[in-house]
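User: I'm new to structure prediction. If I give you an amino acid sequence, what do you actually give back? Let's try with this one:
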Amino acid sequence: MLASGVALYVAGAGALWSLPGPRPGSIALVLAWIAYGIYACRRRIRPAAGISACVLDATGALELVSREGRRTPASRLPGTIVLQRAIWLRYRDRDGRIGAELFTGSPRRDPEFRRAGVLLRLLAASRNN
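Assistant: Good question. You get back a string of structure tokens that encode the predicted 3D arrangement of the chain. For your 129 residues, that looks like this:
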């Protein structure tokens, strides 16, 4: 995910570089775009860097497990996507930071992955009714 974000920022820098006009203006735009891209990517990486696991219990409560083993509550956000072999989980931790995790697995081989997918689908359906 990070590589695709970096690739898009590089493509944006190339598009800004190719704009007609004075070259110093293009250079300033490209440098500002790159600085903003580095800031945005670091801001997205920092919350997820300290998380080693996500725990989803039977009631749908989400907890984040830090690398030290501490559990902190989090809330699921809209935009969580459940596919057959992948789950894109968006969450907000108790400090208000928004993060996302991509989980891949096989529902046939991994009962925990299957349980998480079913539970997230049921929670999404109950929220829409």
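You can read the tokens as a compact description of the fold. Here is one thing that stands out. The helical segments are 2-17, 23-49, 111-128.
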